């Protein structure tokens, strides 16, 4: 298993933010999203429909399933940073 460099995580944060913005037609730039702010509720203010849309876009783009019955979803979707870390962990397997 390869380690993901800090630079590639930073790049991936911007890439995932851009995917979310495009999928949800948000009027912010990827750099405007604080990676540690909550995605759901406060923070970006997304709702459950938005989270479903994000799951579909991430699954399609990165080629792995984000399942609604995953017991770790609260942690995975806690913030842009945790979602990106999950994506990185799936990509290095």
From TrEMBL:
Gene3D superfamilies: ACP-like
Domain of life: Bacteria
Domain Carrier: 7-91
Transmembrane parts of this sequence: none
Name of the protein in question: Phosphopantetheine-binding protein
Organism, as annotated: Hydrogenophaga defluvii
């Amino acid at each position: 298993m390869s380690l993901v460099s800090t630079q590639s995580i930073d790049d991936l944060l911007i890439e995932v933010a851009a995917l979310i913005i495009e999928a949800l037609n948000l009027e912010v730039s990827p750099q405007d999203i604080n990676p540690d702010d909550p995605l759901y509720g406060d923070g970006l203010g997304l709702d459950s429909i938005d989270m479903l849309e994000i799951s579909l876009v991430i699954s399609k783009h990165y080629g792995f399933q984000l399942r609604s019955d995953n017991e770790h979803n609260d942690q995975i979707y806690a913030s842009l940073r945790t979602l990106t870390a999950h994506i990185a962990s799936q990509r290095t397997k």
